[in-house]
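Quick log. Single chain, no ligands specified.
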Amino acid sequence: MDLTTLIGLLVGLGSILVAFIEEGGKLGSLVVISAFIIVVGGTVGATIISFTSEELKKVPYFLKVIFTDKKVDYGTVLESLVDTADKARREGLLSLESQLGEIDNEFLSRGLQLVIDGTDPELTRSMLEMEIESYEEHEKVGTEMFMTMGGFGPTFGIIGTVMGMVNVLGNLSNPDDLGPAIAVAFLATLYGIFTANMFWIPFGTKIKIKTAREVLLMELILEGILSIQAGENPRVIKEKLMTFLPAEVKAKAMIEDKARMGM
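-> predicted structure:
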């Protein structure tokens, strides 16, 4: 479970509900089924129109991305690449085939297999870059889907409010009922803005951020594989790959290196 997603939802929902109750509101007054149907049903319907069936089938996958915390261990992958470079320099590229089964990163494993097979360096780069681009395009669908829902939500909220006001204006002969009816009408706008800013837009942003982390790792692996194929010095490779690391990861790696050297 991605705790930041869970905590964010709990804090956001809790803050709004507590503040509403603190102002003397009753939770029951926030529940209007018709407004909910207009906003959520309309948002989902418009989103279905906007995307193909193949893209919509990926929704369970994207929800898994949002709520699952997948660790991206840059440091471990970097050390693995450096160790692999050292082995390749001492024993040759063909010696790497014996350790492919021990690698749990599919992108790294495929890249090393290309190197072992003697693939031309330019072709190796091209194939791996195409794989990175394909991954980005796949994940981009999720970001666009939830961002699209974030745009539709408030719009359908306004539609629900307008529909409610039509009913209100059609019953002006009952002034005692106008206050509650207007309140119900405006709940549709509340639902639209709330769902967009508490769910859909944050979900799209979460997918975008996680995709960027994975792409950075893949680019690090790509550069490492090409350096191994070129027979570069493992120490040089490590220094080169360190430039890909996020600042906090780089600082931690440097501290660990100094500790190993007894500095």
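Residues 32-263 form one domain.
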